[in-house]
Amino acid sequence: xxxxxxxxxxxxxxxxxxxxxxxxxxxxxxxxxxxxxxxxxxxxxxxxxxxxxxxxxxxxxxxxxxxxxxxxxxxxxxxxxxxxxxxxxxxxxxxxxxxxxxxxxxxxxxxxxxxxxxxxxxxxxxxxxxxxxxxxxxxxxxxxxxxxxxxxxxxxxxxxxxxxxxxxxxxxxxxxxxxxx
Amino acid sequence: xxxxxxxxxxxxxxxxxxxxxxxxxxxxxxxxxxxxxxxxxxxxxxxxxxxxxxxxxxxxxxxxxxxxxxxxxxxxxxxxxxxxxxxxxxxxxxxxxxxxxxxxxxxxxxxxxxxxxxxxxxxxxxxxxxxxxxxxxxxxxxxxxxxxxxxxxxxxxxxxxxxxxxxxxxxxxxxxxxxxxxxxxxxxxxxxxxxxxxxxxxxxxxxxxxxxxxxxxxxxxxxxxxxxxxxxxxxxxxxxxxxxxxxxxxxxxxxxxxxxxxxxxxxxxxxxxxxxxxxxxxxxxxxxxxxxxxxxxxxxx
Lengths: 181, 301
Fold this sequence. Notes:
The complex is a heterodimer of chains A (181) and B (301). Chain A has 181 residues and is an alpha/beta fold. Chain A has helices at residues 10-27, 43-58, 110-122, 165-168, and strands at 2-8, 34-39, 64-67, 98-106, 127-135, 147-151, 158-163, 172-177.
């Protein structure tokens, strides 16, 4: 793969997340009944950061959970490798909550579809929102995000890499191009 | 890993990865909806040439919890009684498009042979006195839950070692995870040697400072064959409160079931807090879900 461009630096990521945190609280009219659920891998630290920002300016803690969607993928009967199953931990009752699903990149929409099905099996939220740091287009399902850090028009042979300090040692969003594709 | 026949050729990493998956499956079983769509479109056959209700039920539930379709073939009600061979039975199932076969047989080696006859994944559900790998996996999982790690832990397996595929599979698997396995039983029920385990006719030697004790079922047919005397066995080998005192304090008790109460294990101990028998049964479903996931997903069909 060939590096093409930096899409966001650490400061831009922080500002985008800070804005999303405000938008979430605004949409929910406060933090009452609000919960954040991060999708493995990078959605989890992003959800934790959103919770910290909300705590900062609202003075109230919002519960955070982690969701692994592997067992809900729609391609398990045809892929040529076996994805590692990871932990799902929702340490609160989802029923009646306004849940914000958090992921790093929104692309085909298939991960979000799987996450919706997984959440429904875990409880009955009052409402589910979707927050993503980057929306790169090319949806294959009728899914859209409620909160977006940055919209990035991309080509299909490009890859959006979100790096977060907790996992990758730095905060940065990069655009790469698959070679020979 | 294409099949699960025994633990030959398995690495510690492969076992640990499978047990990590089982941990997720355990959590799935605690959800309001105890089912995931992962194996939609796959078909699992349980093929039991030797009857067993527990293992078969556990496998079928595991497959259903993963949304696989399940067909079940039991010898007692099948054409096997009309003289059909193992091979023909499996080829018939193969023609119906099965992705995984769980095979139990009274003859050792049938699951191994089956891998040459069918394209699907073969899981050994117990073959003769040779192996019962998913039982060992659920025992390992249960021991890890109770002890945290098996590194340097002494595990005592007690009873009819000679005829036990459970003992054999555990002797193969637990040392892979760092445990030291001791097998104790009457001399007439001990094999000459058992790869992976130390053998002793002395119950005391096996129990001393053990971190966990696994009690095996005494099979009645062994008594009829004159291999042992029931009263003798109870007097010298039954696990009692007092004998368990030789093991580490709070050392847990495991039993693969079905249990002969007051034969291999004193009744009150079976119901005591040290008994992990119920946990073993629950973990069995989770471990089998993990085995199906590992064998089926990513497999060429």
